[in-house]
Amino acid sequence: MKRLHYMLVLATASLLAACNMDQYPYSEIASDQYVTDAAAVNNLVVGAYSGLHAVLYNEWALTELRTDNARMRVTGSTSQDSKLIEQLDQGTIETSHQWVGDYWDDTYAVIYRANDVLANLGVVDDPTLRAQYQGEAQFLRAMLYFNLVRLYGPVFVVTQKVGADEARRLQRSPVEDVYALIEGDLNSIVENGLLPDKLPDSQTGRATMVAAKALLAKVYMTRYAVGEEKYMLAKGLLKEVLAAVGDPQTGADLVPYDKIFARDNEMNKEIIFAVRYLSGNVGLGSPFTTLFGPMNNGNSVVMGSPKHYNFPSDNILAAYNANAEGDKADLRKAVVLSEGYTNITTGLWKDERYMTKFLDPDMASEYDAENDWPVLRVGDIALLYAEIINETEGATDEALKYLNMVRSRAGIREYTSADLTSRYQFRMAVRDERRVELSFENQRWFDLLRWGAAVSVVNDYLASESFYSGYNYTVNPIAEWQTLLPIPISVININPDVAQNVGY
User: Fold this and answer.
1) Residue 18 domain-assigned?
2) Are residues 169 and 41 in the same domain?
3) Closest listed residue to residue 107, CA positions, set 64, 57, 60, 44
4) Are 253 and 246 in contact (CB under 8 A)?
5) CA 369 to CA 284: how far, in whole Å?
6) Maximal C-alpha separation, the chain
7) Pairwise CA distance, residues 82 & 72, whole Å
8) Is residue 355 part of a domain?
9) CB atoms within 10 A of CB 184
10) CB of 485 closer than 8 Å to CB of 149
11) CA–CA distance from 256 to each of 250, 325, 405, 408 (Å)?
């Protein structure tokens, strides 16, 4: 069924290629001339999903690389990519940073596609299909704007087709307006029942009502403070999501951690929403085995010429090791990272840490792995639920149950009520757990922002990570303004009236 879905993606890609694409991603030429029925709208929807591949390609660098989870692999490299990684790793990002600009453009290109779906719903006669396509477009638009506003702050709010001239006059909207759009899209889905709770196998991977509720809960917990009405609403949404995914009560009710990311267990019951990939040289394979695999591995780990990006820090390794007791290790560590490999060419062991969570050992050609990338999953939601119970009610037995559910799956000691006697102790335990549970899934940076802890955590990490002692220049702490990325210089070159973020 997955292959059928991706044949639709390929068909859509050919349709979109026939359209004239304006150089500015918010103002592509309208597709009205070929969108005449529901099948064509469905192609637009599937094309929007396929656009997530380009978005995700750089997201790891703008999130994980800026945290205490990952760092650059070497110092002193003169390669262009190494320079780009160094800027993100060290908080010295320039407005001309290629990946910062690419992420902006790729995200807005998918937002345009979502807007195009919404503009063409009138040709869909079936009300159920029309509702679903509307819901999918609003879900994708909300998800992408949620990332944009957290990464860049005020951004362009574009909800309909605009001409090229108008697009070049766009101005950044206040953060509150961006969140109003995000919440409006997601509430439209939830209140009007636009998306189904479950999908047929032929549509596996598309957005559901469960995904919309999970995302809305995250938005509320990010945007609002404890005690505010919408923050409190997140608790109910999370409970509904957990009920919809089987109402797990213990770690035994969850998918084993090593099976969540396995290519032979795609879209398992842990996954609420994922960006999907298809290997086989059809242009839809995952690039991350190549991007993250260890360099000079003699094809012991992956074939081809891997880049060795997203290098696991000493700090994240220590976090997993800290969970070990006696001969019981955190089962997640072996899934997330490796500390070396045997080079099949030389037969020698090489101490070389690398990230393994999204590596496909059966990849047949470069940039063509099979692994899907989870965006929303059950472990994430269980920990959010434990967090919000603690923040609103304290360290209750209910909160402890969901925290321990995740720890039990990891094979590590469960907490008792005597271990976490205060709201603060429980809060820090949840934060630690989210880090090791969701490492390298592009969640850590957003969590740190949500907790208001990005600057302090990153600066503590920079001061303690032994790797940085080998730098031939001073590693400077980051300031609050550096939690936002710069508006790409390409945007400001087109419209000099667009305000740049403070500090850049």
Assistant:
1) yes
2) yes
3) 57
4) yes
5) 9
6) 67
7) 8
8) yes
9) 13
10) no
11) 12, 20, 12, 10
- Among 199, 187, 197, CA closest to 138: 187
Please give the structure tokens belonging to residue 344: 């099949």
Q: What is the pLDDT of residues 392-417, one digit of tens each?
A: 999 999 999 999 999 999 999 999 99
296: left (phi over 0), alpha (psi -120 to 50) or beta: left
User: Cα(170)–Cα(7) distance, rounded to whole angstroms?
Assistant: 36
- In this structure, are 59 and 194 located in the same domain? yes
- pLDDT given at position 207: 98
Q: DSSP for 349-410?
A: EEEEEEE-TT--TT--STT-B---EEEEEHHHHHHHHHHHHHHHH-S-HHHHHHHHHHHHHT
- CATH code for position 187: 1.25.40.390
| Residue 448 forms part of a structural domain | no
Q: How far apart are CA 392 and CA 227, in angstroms?
A: 7
Indicate if 325 and 186 belong to the same structural domain.
no
First to last CA, the chain: 47
How many other CB atoms are found less than 10 A from the CB of residue 340? Answer: 13
Domain count, the chain: 2
**For residue 92, what are the domain limits?**
1-207+481-504
Q: Is the pLDDT of residue 27 over 70?
A: no
Burial class (CB in 10 A: 0-12, 13-18, 19+), 397: exposed
pLDDT in tens, 209-232: 999 999 999 999 999 999 999 999
